Amino acid sequence: MSVKDNLLKIKAEIPQEVTLVAVSKTKPNEAILEAYEAGQRVFGENKIQEMTDKWEALPKDIQWHMIGHVQRNKVKYMAPFVSLIHGVDSLKLLKEIEKQGKKHDRVISCLLQIHIAKEDTKFGMDAEEVTQLLASDEFSQMQHVKVEGLMGMATFTEDKNQIEEEFKSLAILFDNLKNEFTATQNLDLKTLSMGMSGDYQIAMKAGSTMVRIGSSIFGARNYN
User: Fold this and answer.
1) What's the whole-model pTM score?
2) Are the C-beta atoms of 124 and 77 separated by less than 8 Å?
3) Are 116 and 154 spatial neighbours (Cβ–Cβ below 8 Å)?
4) How far apart, in whole angstroms, are the C-alpha atoms of residue 97 and residue 78?
5) Residues 104-116 pLDDT 10s
């Protein structure tokens, strides 16, 4: 099946209120354009340099989401154009995004990454850390970032019950934080990003509003 056929098949499965991020990392511009021509506008990359190259070469109405782990010293390269940064896992990183947002006179939208997996390899904060961050004076004074929600990755396992439990725990935290924190200019918790090619159906059942799907659209990843 073509990229277009794969994309339309997945779009037919996803409710209108769930945003599809087409994960285009390692994929050539031609494949992205095929998805673009089929109506897709939101693409996810995990390497800032690759995303910047694609941003320069491809149509300007594409929304680029940074879905990988972010190093603070690389934020400056995507600050002029990135639409949403999924993996903000510390106040230090948020401060760097604020600094670069100010430099480019724009507000950069972010999701806070929560560690829900039973694996040590996944990044993210726990419930206490995210609550402290949102309640901090430093965050309240930021004017060039907007925290729009949470992101989490489930354990890489065949155990669907475990995946479901992890997604549910993130959905509960999301609801609790929405109840605890009033929306402000830099905080509006509306996005819950969870679910990838292998588990997005479970994620949507648990309340995901944004899924990140790559291989089911573009085929297997290209590793050089």
Assistant:
1) 0.95
2) no
3) yes
4) 10
5) 999 999 999 999 9
